[in-house]
C-alpha cells in the first residue's frame, strides 16, 4: 500500500483502509479507569463502521455496568482518537443488548490486567447464580490462598481481595 | 396501573429513589468497604433508573427526557413503591430494604429479559446481573447481623419486622403489565425464607400491607427526599457539569 498513492487505489480498497484506520483508532482508546487495557480488549467496543459515501464513522460501544460513570469520558476519547486519525465526522452510539460480560475480555486484556495487579475474572457460570467461592489467584505471588475483603471495590466492575500468602491487597475484576 | 408507560415509570422510580437513599450512606457507612459497596449499588440503581426513565419518556411521547422525569415531578407524580422511600434508619433497616428490594428486582429483571418488549428486555438482561450482586450483599448482612450478637440480632429482627409490611406492595397484581408483579412473589419467598431462617430470624406474619406508592400516594418521607434530590436542577434549570 505504501507504494501506491490514495488516488490510485480503487474506491473499495480506500473504504476498507478508512474503516481499518477508524477501527484501529477506536480500538486504541484505553479505559479511563483501568488505564492498562483498551476498550477493545475490555470487550466494550462492539462495532466500527464507516459510511463509504460520507466518510462518517459510527462507533458502537456498550457499558460494563449500567451506571458506569466513565462512559462520557470514553465517548469523548473515541471522538478525539478518530479526529486525530483523520475521521473528524464520528458518532458514538451506546447499546445495552446483548449485555456486556467479562467473558468478552480478550486473552491479551486478561494478561494486561494481571500484569497490573488486577486479578482477571473467572469464566461466567450460566446458571444465573453468582458464585463467590471460586479461588482467585493473587496477581502478585500467584497463590490461590486469597480472601475477599469486599465484593465492591474502587470501580463498579472490581472487588477488593487480599492474599493470605503475601498479605498484599489487590483488585479483582468480578465475573459478570 | 394501565400501560407500559406506568409500568416502566414505576420500575424507574423504584430504582431512582433506592439510589438516592443508598447514596445518603456515602461517607457515613460503618466501615470503608461498606461505604464503597453501598455507593456502588446506588450507582447500579441509578444506571437502571436512567435507562428506564429515558424509555418511559419515549413511551409517553410528551417530550420529557430522563432529567425532566427525575427532577421536575412532584411527589404525587412518583410511582415508586413506599418501601424504597422509607428513611434509612439504622444500618439493619437499610440492609432489610436492600435485601428485600434485590429479592424482588432479581426475578423482575430476569422475567423482563424474556418479555416481548425489546427495550425492557435489554434493560432487564443488563440489570439482573447487577441485582444478583445486590441480593448476595444484602443476604450476607442479614445473616451476619441476624446470627451475630444479641444486640445485632435484636436490631435485625426489628428491621425485618419494620420493613416487611411494605414488601407486599411490590407484588400488587397488574395482569396487563409486561411482567405481572404478582407472579414474582414465589421467587421472592423462595429466596427470602431460607436466608431469614439461616439468620435465625422470624419471618413476620403481618397482614398489614401499606400501599399507595404506585398511585402516587406516598409517605411524608418522599417529599423531603425529592427536595434534596431536585433542588439544584430546579434552582438552575438545565445545569450541566
From TrEMBL, chain B:
<dbReference type="InterPro" id="IPR007814">
    <property type="entry name" value="PaaA_PaaC"/>
</dbReference>
<dbReference type="InterPro" id="IPR009078">
    <property type="entry name" value="Ferritin-like_SF"/>
</dbReference>
<protein>
    <submittedName>
        <fullName>Phenylacetate-CoA oxygenase subunit PaaI</fullName>
    </submittedName>
</protein>
<dbReference type="InterPro" id="IPR011882">
    <property type="entry name" value="PaaC"/>
</dbReference>
<dbReference type="GO" id="GO:0010124">
    <property type="term" value="P:phenylacetate catabolic process"/>
</dbReference>
<dbReference type="Pfam" id="PF05138">
    <property type="entry name" value="PaaA_PaaC"/>
</dbReference>
<dbReference type="InterPro" id="IPR052703">
    <property type="entry name" value="Aromatic_CoA_ox/epox"/>
</dbReference>
<dbReference type="InterPro" id="IPR012347">
    <property type="entry name" value="Ferritin-like"/>
</dbReference>
<dbReference type="GO" id="GO:0005829">
    <property type="term" value="C:cytosol"/>
</dbReference>
Amino acid at each position: 500500500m505504501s507504494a501506491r498513492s490514495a488516488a490510485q487505489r480503487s474506491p473499495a480498497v480506500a473504504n476498507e483502509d478508512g474503516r481499518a484506520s477508524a477501527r484501529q483508532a477506536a480500538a486504541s482508546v484505553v479505559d479511563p479507569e483501568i488505564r492498562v487495557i483498551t476498550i477493545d480488549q475490555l470487550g466494550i467496543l462492539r462495532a466500527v463502521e464507516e459510511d463509504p459515501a460520507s466518510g462518517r464513522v459510527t462507533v458502537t460501544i456498550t457499558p460494563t455496568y449500567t451506571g458506569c460513570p466513565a462512559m462520557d469520558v470514553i465517548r469523548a476519547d473515541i471522538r478525539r482518537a478518530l479526529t486525530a486519525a483523520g475521521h473528524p465526522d464520528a458518532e458514538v452510539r451506546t447499546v445495552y443488548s446483548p449485555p456486556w460480560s467479562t467473558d468478552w475480555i480478550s486473552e491479551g486484556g486478561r494478561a494486561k490486567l494481571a500484569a497490573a495487579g488486577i486479578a482477571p475474572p473467572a469464566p461466567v457460570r450460566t446458571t444465573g447464580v453468582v458464585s463467590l467461592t471460586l479461588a482467585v489467584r493473587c496477581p502478585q505471588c500467584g497463590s490461590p490462598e486469597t480472601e475477599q475483603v469486599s465484593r465492591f471495590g474502587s470501580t463498579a466492575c472490581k472487588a477488593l481481595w487480599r492474599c493470605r500468602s503475601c498479605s498484599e491487597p489487590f483488585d479483582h475484576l468480578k465475573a459478570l | 396501573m394501565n400501560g407500559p408507560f406506568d409500568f416502566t415509570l414505576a420500575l424507574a422510580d423504584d430504582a431512582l429513589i433506592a439510589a438516592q437513599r443508598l447514596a445518603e450512606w456515602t461517607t457515613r457507612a460503618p466501615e470503608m468497604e461498606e461505604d464503597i459497596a453501598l455507593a456502588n449499588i446506588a450507582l447500579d440503581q441509578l444506571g437502571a433508573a436512567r435507562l428506564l426513565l429515558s424509555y418511559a419518556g419515549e413511551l409517553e411521547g410528551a417530550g420529557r427526557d430522563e432529567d425532566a422525569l427525575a427532577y421536575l415531578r412532584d411527589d404525587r407524580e412518583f410511582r415508586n413503591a413506599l418501601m424504597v422511600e422509607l428513611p434509612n434508619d439504622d444500618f439493619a433497616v437499610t440492609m432489610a430494604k436492600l435485601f428485600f428490594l434485590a429479592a424482588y428486582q432479581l426475578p423482575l429483571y430476569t422475567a423482563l429479559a424474556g418479555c416481548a418488549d425489546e427495550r425492557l428486555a435489554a434493560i432487564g438482561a443488563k440489570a439482573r446481573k447487577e441485582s444478583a450482586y445486590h441480593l448476595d450483599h444484602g443476604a450476607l448482612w442479614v445473616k451476619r447481623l441476624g446470627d451475630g450478637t444479641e444486640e445485632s440480632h435484636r436490631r435485625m429482627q426489628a428491621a425485618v419486622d419494620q420493613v416487611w409490611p411494605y414488601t407486599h406492595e411490590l407484588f400488587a397484581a397488574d395482569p396487563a403489565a409486561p411482567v405481572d408483579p404478582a407472579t414474582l412473589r414465589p421467587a421472592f419467598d423462595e429466596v427470602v425464607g431460607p436466608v431469614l431462617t439461616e439468620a435465625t430470624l422470624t419471618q413476620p406474619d403481618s397482614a398489614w400491607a401499606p400501599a399507595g406508592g404506585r398511585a402516587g400516594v406516598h409517605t411524608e418521607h418522599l417529599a423531603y427526599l425529592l427536595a434534596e434530590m431536585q433542588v439544584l436542577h430546579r434552582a438552575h434549570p438545565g445545569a450541566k457539569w
